[in-house]
Amino acid sequence: MSINLEEQARALIRADNFIDGQWVAAASGRRFAVTDPATGKLIADVADSGPADAGAAADAAAKALPAWRAKLPKERAAVLHRWHALIVEQQDALGALISLEQGKPLAEGRGEVAYGASYVAWFADEATRIYGDVIPQQQRGKRMSAIKEPIGVVAAITPWNFPLAMIARKIAPALAAGCTVVAKPAEDTPLTAIALVMLAHEAGVPDGVLNLISASRESAAETVGEWLADGRVRKITFTGSTPVGKHLARESAGTLKKLSLELGGNAPFIVFDDADLDAAVTGLLAAKFRNGGQTCVCPNRIYVQRGVYERFSALLSAKVAELQVGPASDPASQIGPMINARAVDKIARHVEDAVANGALVLTGGKRLTELGPHYYAPTVLGNATPDMMLCCEETFGPVAPLFPFDTEQEAVDAANDTPFGLASYFYSQDVRRIDRVSRALEAGIVGINEGALASEAAPFGGVKESGYGREGSKYGLDDYLSIKYLCQGGLE
Question: Catalytic: which of 101, 226, 262, 394?
């Protein structure tokens, strides 16, 4: 029985910018189309913003900052708790909206709502735990202390693959810290973010504290450029590709903004010969095929020790071949469409290159054009090698290439042989190996006998060219705060 996603989501669909508590069209009057990746059907024409709209949002955020930062932490926390309650109340509709514009199965859409809401609840509580320090006295007659203050106006720029969770885990800590926000979601999936802001306004977030504008791919750089040049915007928080992250870092240097950058990944997944293979297959399925492989922490390179390579390949291929592919409107679907034609073309290019260089297709390896233009079969490739494109480029799709290896050091060296360092995974039952390998892997996040890593209580972020800063956990608030040192003399 199919589900009418659009009917479930319709009440939450808005198509304009939200600036200073008002729904407004783009100053230019331009709009762009948001479509269902499963069918290509138009969902809505939304505001195509430009620099004037970005400037108006920054004006509103700067004006609202003094009053919002002056609120007691428990007052900000109360607003965030109300926002959390509204998100949970609208879980089904928000999940349907995510599935409609992003394509992921409805169960995953609902799961993303719960995941994003968990960050709002977490930072509502953290708002009341922003502590400073009294510094031990160094000189008679002087008292020294350090306090934490909101950094100011924050610009949040988010990707399409988790249209609710990514923006929630940026807005929630910013508001908890006492900052005001200007936000721009990805052009492929703006509707969920707009709905989230609508619920925040209903929860009592004051006018101007949270502002959101949408922009097409053609307008985005110029629009965001307004914030990069604006000295009132003191922080950029961005999730997306490494090239765009580097651009933001360069262009914001003129005003020395603070940046949090959660960028690309090329995650390794290592299966040692002492691993529980059934558990490793289950963990890989969860890590690799969530959202059709379209996540930044998806394993991109699966290294399997030669002694268990054949058995693991067979177990994994059998499970992947059973995955059900289809639109989110079909409750049986486990893998939905890719986000757009460019994504499918890249996946096909990587698989074709791998096969041309000696990889074996163990299952999948083809477009599913009978379902629509944006579908690709869940794929397992055997005998992958380092000279294949998929070894050094993030595929961002449902493709699991298997690389055989012999020694522990060989696997660690291969895992670290990348400019990226977001997530790494490995499976082993040897406690000494677990200690060695977890220390040796160059990544901000390491999954040890576990494929599902995300939690609002854990710090999420990478090293090397996967960026810097952390989201979630007690550390996630620090990126929205500055430390002020107070020295009081004349006390004797």
Answer: 262
Q: Where in the chain is the domain with CATH 3.40.605.10?
A: 5-263+466-485
CA dihedral 132, 133, 134, 135 (to 10 degrees): -140
**The two structure tokens encoding residue 469:** 């800063």
**Does the 5-263+466-485 domain belong in CATH 3.40.50.620?**
no
Tens digits of residue pLDDT in 300-319: 999 999 999 999 999 999 99
Give yes or no for a contact between 228 and 252, defined as CB atoms under 8 angstroms apart.
yes
365: which residues sit within 8 A by CB, 6+ positions away? 351, 355, 377, 379, 381
Q: What's the pLDDT score for residue 1?
A: 57
Long-range contact set of residues 439-448: C-beta below 8 Å, sequence gap at least 24: 440/412, 440/416, 441/268, 441/412, 441/415, 441/416, 442/415, 442/416, 443/267, 444/470, 445/297, 447/283, 447/287, 447/423
CA distance 174 to 155: 10
- pLDDT(198) > 60: yes
Max Cα–Cα distance, the chain, nearest Å = 83
Flag the least confident range among 5-19, 41-55, 409-423.
5-19
SS3 content of the chain, % helix, strand, coil (to 5): 45, 20, 35
Please give the average per-residue pLDDT across 77-97, as a whole number: 97
> Catalytic: 262?
yes
Integer-rounded Cα radius of gyration of the chain:
23
Report the mean per-residue pLDDT for the chain. 97
Beta strands in 386-478 (DSSP E): 399-405, 420-421, 423-427, 445-448, 463-464, 467-468
Domain with CATH 3.40.309.10 in the chain: 267-455
Please state the φ and ψ torsions of residue 111, each to the nearest 5 degrees.
-65, -40
Superfamily of domain 267-455: Aldehyde Dehydrogenase; Chain A, domain 2 (3.40.309.10)
d(CA 206, CA 407): 58
Using a 10 angstrom Cβ sphere, with 0-12 exposed, 13-18 middle and 19 or more buried, the burial of residue 361 is: middle
pLDDT digits 0-9 by tens, 227-249:
999 999 999 999 999 999 999 99
